[in-house]
Amino acid sequence: MAKTEQEKAYQIAVRLTRLEHERIQEMMRAGLFRSAADFAREAVRDKLREAEPVSVRELPRADTEKLIDRYLAKHPGSHFAGEIAEALGLDFRSTLEAVKRMIASGRIKKTGSPTR
After folding, report:
1. Residues 16-27, mean pLDDT to the nearest whole number
2. Which DSSP symbol is given to 4?
3. By CB neighbour count within 10 A (0-12 exposed, 13-18 middle, 19+ buried), where does 99 fall?
4. Are residue 67 and residue 100 in the same domain, yes or no?
5. C-alpha distance from residue 51 to each of 6, 16, 76, 91 (Å)
C-alpha cells in the first residue's frame, strides 16, 4: 500500500554540542526515551505545538469572569493571569482586567508567586 504524502517519513541531520548529546543520553538511560531519535521527534513535536496559531475569544466581561471563576474552582491554588488566559483561550488583556476587577471586588484574592 502506498503511503500518502503526510505519512511519508523524512530525515534531517542536526549537530549537537557534547553537553546536549550527553543530556539526551542521560534521559535515555533514565528510561525517558528509547533513543535519540525518539527524543528528537518529541522535541520537534513540542516545538511545533508551541508554534501553532492560537485563536482567542473575546467575551463580555461577565462571561469572562464566569469562566475564570469556574477555572479557579477546578484548579485551586495560585495562577498567573496569562496562565488562565491561555488555558481558557481568552485574550490576555481582557483576562488581566477581569482578574483585577475580581480582586478589587473581593471575589478572588491576590497571592504571592504561583505554586507549581
Report:
1. 96
2. P
3. buried
4. yes
5. 19, 22, 28, 17
- Total domain count, the chain: 2
Same domain for 44 and 72, yes or no, is: no
Spatial distance between the Cα atoms of 113 and 79, rounded to a whole number of angstroms:
8
Average pLDDT over every residue of 97-110 = 92
Q: Cα separation of 116 and 89, whole Å? A: 21
Q: What is the pLDDT of residue 5?
A: 67
Say whether both 41 and 65 belong to one domain: no
Structural domain including 29 reads 18-51
Q: Cα–Cα distance between 25 and 56 in angstroms, integer? A: 39
Distance of alpha carbon 79 from alpha carbon 91, whole angstroms: 16
CA 74: distance to chain centroid? 18
- DSSP conformational letter for 114: P
What single-letter amino acid sits at 38?
D
Residues 70, 67: Cα–Cα separation, whole Å: 5
